[in-house]
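User: quick one, fold this
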Amino acid sequence: MDRSPDKFFLLLMAAAATWSFFLVANAGRLQPSCIGRERDALLAFKQGMNDTYGELGSWQRGHQDCCQWAGITCNNVTGHVVKLELGERYLVGQISPSLLSLEHLEYLDLNWTRLYGPDGRVPVFLGSLKNLRHLDLSGMPFSGRVPPQLGNLSKLEYLDLSGNYFTGAVPPQLGNLSKLEYLDLSAIYFNNTRMVSTDISWLTRLPLLALLGMSYINLSSIADWPLVVNKIPSLELLGLSECSLSSANQSLAHLNLTNLHYLDLSDNYFGHPIASSWFWNITSIKYLDLSGTSLYGPFPNALGNMTSLQELYFGPYSSDGDSPTTTANTATMTVDLKNLCDLEYLLLDGSLSSGNITEFIDKLPRCSSNRLQRLRLSRNNMVGILPNRLGNLTNLASLDLSHNNITGAIPLGFGNLSCLEYLHLSNNLLTGAIPLGFGNLSCLEYLHLSNNLLTGAIPLGLGNCTAVYLSNNNLSGPIQLGIETCTRLQYLDLSYNSITGPIPPMLGNCTELYYLTLSNNLLTGDIPPGLGNYTSLQSLSLSSNHLTEPILLGTTSCTILEDLDLSDNNIAGVIPPWLGNCTSLRHLSLSKNHITGHFPSKISLLGNLTGLDLGYNNLDGVITEEHLVTLKNINHLDLSHNSFSGHLP
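Assistant:
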């Protein structure tokens, strides 16, 4: 018999292929189907809810194997349902006690559904699902108290009750969950009521706890809260935002929180020197939010040793960047941050009593791979000039230095910020020209340089932005944004400058414009008909220029236009009838022009008008009651200095 290695290998491959085919063909028989009573329990659970979008369409009695249903996972050996994952589905209705038949359930996720228990509360019977390891009821419409029966779930490792409308006391029975690693109770204010806790010592009975979220729970009576959390050395994330905590200057003899990397204490009124806070020696912290805590005085030098720090928030805004906090901060920052090589977000806007921008930038990280992405220092009474070293922060995506007293020119090094998306330098005392390099910043979306003393021309290339604000400067020359490629531009404000020449016809290519104001310049010529291509425009102001010729926009798609101001120009001709299509108009001003003809009957179609100014023109004829009877919302009407005859109805 031929026993050559080649033939043996071929025989081995053939046998493997045959065995693989056998496994695939019989896989369905090796996988047990679900238990009948558990299938019935799931169907009873579904019967109590409204599945508007058919997300549980597979849950049918005709589909016998519930292990194949959406959101269901069964044990591969026993066939018991061990996982029910229905989070973020549009399910409305009541949570049925039939779930008690799922005795082997380990994982229950109903987050952000519209399911509820009796009287809108968490069903008490959930505390009897003794095998649960994971329970997520976050973002649901629950109200009332958190049931203490949840403390019976002795195997629970993950509990998320955040984003609900709970009231009453936090049950200390949660301290019985000795295997818990994740606990988020962060609530939502409702009718100015919220959960409260006067004793959190039960937390020390959770030796494995890595995440603790108690934001928006009233902890005002707990003065020793840092001592309690310091007894949970496993903690990695701690969220205590807006808990009415009274101070953070407690003295800790020994710090146990060596694993802590996330700490959110925002929106608590501490009102003591920032340097006296207990957490500055925790060098493992990566995320620190102290927004709205009324801390003051100099930052401690220990901040410079927090080499793991990635994000620091200390402004009047929380870390979402949009929501103003309730209390402000007033501190000073003279700490050397050169060694914080991992720092990505530094948000100190509206929180420093004073500072020098030149010195501040000099203290920023100096590392081979600079990771700083967001820097916000607005409203900090900062003086000094912008150093060219800013151009070395090549990963910077967002820079806000607005509302300070910064002087001098914008450094040419800004042209090196190739990742920059957001630049806000408004309301300073900046002089000189806008660097030509701005036109090469291909990622730039938002540019705000208004209310400075800038001169020179508008650089090319800004048409790639979505928002450009350059108002209240001394800019001159023509409009040249590179507007032939401005299809993303939504906001453009060039008002109160000395811009000359005509409005370029290519501005009509900016079809996504929402807000356009070129007022108070030295523009000449006519209004390009292409401006009538805008279908998203809500506000258009070309006032106080030297525009001439009749209004020939010719638009019929102005149904969302709310504000139109062409006043104080040299526009001639009649008021165009297409204005009657602009049914959302609230403010219309054509005053101080050379407009002729009768009062247009189409104005009567503009029932949303609150302000109408046609004064200082050459209009004539009789104004009848029919012209004005539909304008019931008018609170400002100026028809003066025209040649109308008769009486105003």
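User: anything notable?
Assistant: The longest strand covers residues 81-85.
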